[in-house]
Design goal:
With about 170 residues, the protein is of the alpha+beta class. The chain is built from five helices and ten strands.
C-alpha cells in the first residue's frame, strides 16, 4: 500500500502506518512527533518507486507533472539535487538534508544507522555548466572540515551522468 502524503506550502508530511514503517526500515523522512516529514527529493524518489502518492490540502491526488512543477517552483535547483539524491540512494547510501550545515545533503556510508552513527560526507550537487570560484570551493571545504565530514562535490552533466569528487583535509 502506498504512503499517502500531503503537500502543504513546501512541506510534505504523512502520519500513515506505511510512512512510519518505511521510516523505521529505510530511514525515509524525518520523524517529528507523530508525523514523518519528507524532503522534496525523498518524496519524488518514493513516487518514482511507486511507494508514495501526494495529495493537496483538499485530498486530491497530484499528478507527477504537477508535483515536478511545484517542486521546481519551491527549489530552482531541484532537478540537479534530485539526480544526485536518486543516484546515491540507488547505490545504497542514506541521504539526508544538510541545510543546517550549509550543504544540500549529508550522506551516511552504506550499512550505517542514521541514529547510531555520523554521516561521512556533506554533498554539494553542481551542474557542470555552473562555475565555482575558489572562494566558494574553499567555503564548502571549510564547512565540511569544521563539522568533521569529507566534502563530496557531485557534478551533473547535460545527460544526467554524475561524477563525484571527494575532498579531504590532510595534515602534513
Amino acid at each position: 500500500m502506498k504512503i499517502k502524503a500531503t503537500l502543504i506550502s513546501d512541506k510534505i508530511t504523512s502520519n500513515t502506518l506505511e510512512a512510519q514503517n518505511l521510516f523505521a526500515t529505510s530511514r525515509f523522512g524525518e520523524k517529528i512527533g507523530e508525523k514523518i516529514f519528507y524532503s522534496l527529493s525523498e518524496a519524488l524518489y518514493l513516487i518514482d518507486d511507486k511507494k508514495m502518492e501526494i495529495l493537496n490540502p483538499q485530498n486530491k491526488k497530484l499528478t507527477q507533472e504537477e508535483i515536478l512543477r511545484k517542486f521546481e517552483k519551491i527549489d530552482k535547483k531541484f532537478k540537479i539535487k534530485y539526480l544526485v539524491f536518486k543516484d546515491l540512494r540507488k547505490k545504497g547510501y542514506i541521504v539526508k538534508s544538510a541545510l543546517k550545515f550549509g550543504a544540500e545533503f549529508r550522506i551516511y556510508d552504506k550499512g550505517k544507522k542514521v541514529d547510531k552513527s555520523h554521516s561521512k560526507w556533506i554533498c554539494f550537487p553542481v551542474s557542470e555548466n555552473k562555475q565555482i570560484n575558489w572562494q566558494e570551493f574553499s567555503a564548502k571545504n571549510r564547512i565540511a572540515n569544521s563539522i568533521k565530514k569529507n566534502l563530496l562535490v557531485a557534478i551533473v552533466d547535460e545527460e544526467g551522468a554524475i561524477s563525484y569528487y571527494e575532498v579531504k583535509w590532510t595534515r602534513i
